[in-house]
Design goal:
The chain has an 8-stranded mixed sheet, with helices on both faces. A 7-stranded antiparallel sheet has the order 8-9-10-11-12-13-14, with no helix packed on it. The protein has a domain at about 1-70 and about 555-679: Alpha/Beta hydrolase fold, catalytic domain (Rossmann fold), CATH 3.40.50. Helices cover about 20% and strands about 35% of the residues. It contains 12 helices and 38 strands. The chain is an alpha+beta fold and about 675 residues long.
Length: about 675
Amino acid sequence: MKSPPIAKKVKKVLKKHNDSRVDNYYWLRDDTRKNKAVLDYLKTERAYHDDWIRTQSNISNNYFKKLNGYIPAKDESLKIKRNGFFYFSESLKNNEYRKYYRSKKKTSKKELILDINKLAKNKKFYQVSGVSPSKDNQFLAFAEDNNGRREYTIKVKHIKSGKNLSDKISGTDGQFIWSKDSKNIIYIKRDETTLTSNQVFLHTIGTSQKNDILLFEETDPQFHCSLGISRDKEYGFIYSSQTNANEVRFFSLNNPTELKLILKRKKKHKYYVDIFNNNFYVMTNMGGQDNFSLKYSDLPVCHQFKKWKTILKESKKRYLLDFEIFKNHILLDVRENGLPQILKIDTKNRTHEYIKFDEPCYDVSLAGNYDPKADYFCFAYSSLNKPETVYKEFLVSGRRSVIWKSKIKCKTKGLKVERLLLKSRDNTKVPASLVYKDDGTPLHKKPVLFYGYGSYGHIIDANFRSSIMPLLEENFIFVLAHIRGGSEMGKHWYENGRMHKKKNTFYDFIDVTQGCLKKGYGDKDNVFAMGGSAGGLLMGAIANEAPELYKGILAAVPFMDVVTTMLDESIPLTTFEYDEWGNPNNKKDYDYMKSYSPYDNLSNLPYPNILVTSSLFDSQVQYYEPAKYVAKLRDLSTSNNKILFRINLIGGHGGLSGKTAVLKETSEDFTFFISLVDS
């Protein structure tokens, strides 16, 4: 292999709170993404990575072949009935993108309504979001992104003729809903600089975007907007949210211009709403609750909290995530003891019961329940060794049947799943989900890969992942570390892994790694770790804290330069995330961030092999954060281990688009680990 690229140093002193930081690689930031010197350097990094992957072509090609072999000839989604039609999508093995269809009956002739393959033809990057038919089934709206920046343009197609209307709604975040008369679209527009979703507009079909009506504007840069639709399809919702607070407005889908506020925002209060049969339902942590309770009222008093009646009390052991209303029942996605559950409440008889699942760890959620009048509900289930299956269960009898099953072709026989509780350094018990091939090989001789995230309250569940199946064939143990910063164990789990308790996230991951090894899970000489985005920050932190513990680390689209980014309000999403990481304009927050920021804490250490990935048009973690990190890491590392940077000059936070490109990048990721075993 050629020698690794060495980035030039251009000294830049960053001052704040009487503290000076030297950033020799600040010059790699180019907001135009056109600077020749920057692009040339990124190209050399990409060439260096590609040169390395060519040396591992046997591994990567084999991995790709296996992943591609898992794909069925035809992969059809669950058919969901909406407004008299069954809508669904389909992916053919020889297609890069999905096709969208509808039919009058489940078994009747299908009608092609959108072919993403045609739309993406001759485009280097193409992604579609929010495919949605109008209420009268005449039109189909969809949002497209052409570079990965997640700045979507909404387009409208006349279904019967197949022709696109003149409507082009640009600068959106991809969210939109239809009015009930099918004449209007309510959508969210992003701030051009910060990319914050801060404006809600009403667009009339067939008119110019310049004539659109502003319905709501969020003026607090720490909040962003999102949309929702009520269970009875009569109302729309506008959420203004930050990490730990929100407020909700609702409007009739017959009259979108008349907004009504439900409850004003209040610090540490989050609530989620729905409307059905003239009743208003709210999931709330009002009053400083650790977790959520479920309440309801009739519409005229929806703003009077004291008049709300309790359906389900808050419990420290039970964390409510979502709910769906039926005629005489309410179904809830909940968590208890760190595991997902479905709770069924009979509102007529005032009873409730849990849907039972037998595996030690799994993923389950409500799915496809579009019709609130149905006498059954549907849920999706998978685990680390079971592909997804969607079940239909009758609300009264409990009779259950399979209505959809993944056709993925990978073999799962002989895979064993376990769940462990491992002590962190402060004696907190941290769950871990494991899967491995039970082939008689002693577990302490198997290479082991740990995956973690631990931010924003985001839950990482033990769902099926076809991407790791070839890795398990290579006798790896795969471990999900359910560390603090997520909400796996409830809201307190999140609270103890954010702001000035953020280091718990990193310590948990390291301690889960060591705990597994002590229990005999994994070869201590072949220990690997991976995480992306905020999980990439986690990877950078553990590399600084315990470089000797890991042989190889993959940091995908990683948030590495915490202090500099959070000090710059022009960088997309910065202000919105003050409540997650802190505001470094405050010295206390600044000092704490600086104490763990991966970029600021790089030093002369024997770092392990590290692969970093990014894309030039990433809207969530700007490309220059991982670029600067790699340059500085290469300068300071005292080991001779590989430092690789796979930078895409097109694409965004999720990498490239198209089935083949995604499988190729996935194969390269896991090739990195396989190539290092026993090396």
